[in-house]
Design a protein that fits this description.
The complex is a heterodimer of chains A (180) and B (194).
Chain A: H1 3-13, H2 29-38, H3 41-57, H4 69-108, H5 119-131, H6 134-147, H7 149-153, H8 155-166, H9 169-179
Chain B: H1 4-13, H2 17-39, H3 42-58, H4 69-88, H5 97-101, H6 112-131, H7 135-146, H8 151-158, H9 162-179, H10 181-185, H11 187-193
The chains are: A mainly alpha (180), B mainly alpha (194).
């Protein structure tokens, strides 16, 4: 075993490593290292210094935190909790903004939808309407109503259909039976 | 997993705030010691330890027990210290070579005060040597030597392989032995101080 490998194995074994070197059944690396140290003056000196290092490391004992540590920490924790609450509220507020905007748009009557290819035509129509003198507007409105005349002519049917929905099923069956 | 701290963290994840306080009480001193050894400054270490527990508090929503709780906690602490050092580019205090090469004072009549002074001097020399280590070597040595972690746990905390941890520790110890050579050669002072 080389000196460097022996020293590495000794260091590793200090913290509970039991790796076995080489083939199954071979001596653990640490046993090989100890055998090497017995016959190597330099590695023996290394082992002594390593033991002295452990003693020196033991001088640095854990120290509790200074006074007021807990008070400061729990104040920061409370601040964190409040901050999380505020962030939560803001998240809800921002989540509600689109709904609020949509509601406002619906109330004011602005187009609450993405532009479509027909929007250009609608804008053109609005431009034409804007050029019509106010005194002629009543006539234009009448003409526009005329476009809906077919619907108006069948208004009675629509009303009849709505009336059908209010009739109970049994009554409807009776009416249909009479019709047959 | 048979780890009571994992059970506490899971309870905290489900909303039991008192479980967090219990975890804090259990690990506070060790985390403060760890951050002090990592950062080399008590005030900065206390601030960093508090940051670590605040990060633990925030982690409750995403916590999944994949390892021992201590591995999880020290991973937070290690990453936080590494980030702090990287951000601040803290000047490492190099050991005073001249002072380190000066032979340790001979033990006089051996008063209790002398021993205490000697212990203090050795602790300072030790901390200077620890501070001079590359950060990952320092973290590996601290976790295994002072926190009593297994190689596997330390590997999880630093997020490297077990063989890398062994290598880091061997290099750390070798560097410490070089830095502390005069003290270790004259072991009487250490033996007296222990």
């Amino acid at each position: 075993m080389r000196c460097e490998d022996a020293r590495a194995a000794l260091d590793t074994s200090r913290y509970g490593d039991t790796d076995r070197a080489g083939e199954p059944g071979a001596k653990p690396a640490v046993e090989q290292a100890r055998a090497h140290v017995e016959g190597c003056t330099e590695c023996e000196a290394f082992a002594e210094r390593a033991a002295a290092l452990d003693r020196m490391l033991a001088l640095d004992e854990p120290q509790p935190p200074g006074p007021g540590f807990d008070t400061r920490f729990f104040a920061r924790l409370e601040e964190e909790r409040q901050s999380r609450k505020r962030r939560g509220l803001w998240r809800w507020t921002w989540a509600l903004v689109p709904a609020g905007v949509a509601a406002a748009v619906a109330l004011v009557g602005l187009p609450a939808r993405a532009p479509t290819p027909t929007d250009g035509a609608a804008q053109g129509e609005h431009a034409v309407l804007a050029e019509i003198p106010p005194e002629d507007m009543a006539l234009v409105m009448e003409l526009e109503l005329l476009e809906d005349l077919p619907v108006l002519e069948r208004l009675e049917e629509v009303e009849a259909f709505e009336l059908l929905e209010t009739i109970e099923a049994e009554e409807l069956e009776a009416i249909l039976g009479e019709a047959e | 997993m048979d780890d009571p701290d994992v059970a506490l963290m899971l309870a905290f994840s489900k909303g039991q705030e008192e479980a967090f306080v219990e975890l804090y009480n259990r690990h506070r001193d060790r985390i403060v010691s760890y951050t002090r050894r990592m950062l080399g400054n008590q005030a900065q270490a206390e601030e960093a330890a508090q940051d670590v527990f605040l990060k633990l508090y925030r982690a409750r929503e995403t916590y999944a027990p994949r390892s021992r709780f201590s591995t999880f906690l020290y991973r937070i602490a290690t990453n936080h210290c590494l980030n702090l050092n990287a951000r601040v580019e803290r000047k490492l205090v190099r050991p005073d070579v001249e002072a380190a090469n000066r032979p340790a004072p001979e033990r006089a009549a051996g008063t209790r005060q002398d021993a205490e002074l000697e212990r203090k001097r050795l602790r300072e020399t030790l901390n200077t040597a620890l501070a001079s280590l590359p950060e990952r070597q320092r973290a590996a040595l601290l976790l295994v030597h002072y926190e009593g972690m297994s190689y596997r746990e330390a590997a999880g905390a630093i997020e490297v392989s077990e063989s890398a941890i062994k290598s880091l520790i061997h290099r750390a110890r070798s560097a410490m032995m070089r830095e502390l050579e005069p003290e270790l050669r004259n072991d009487r002072g250490v033996l007296h101080a222990v």
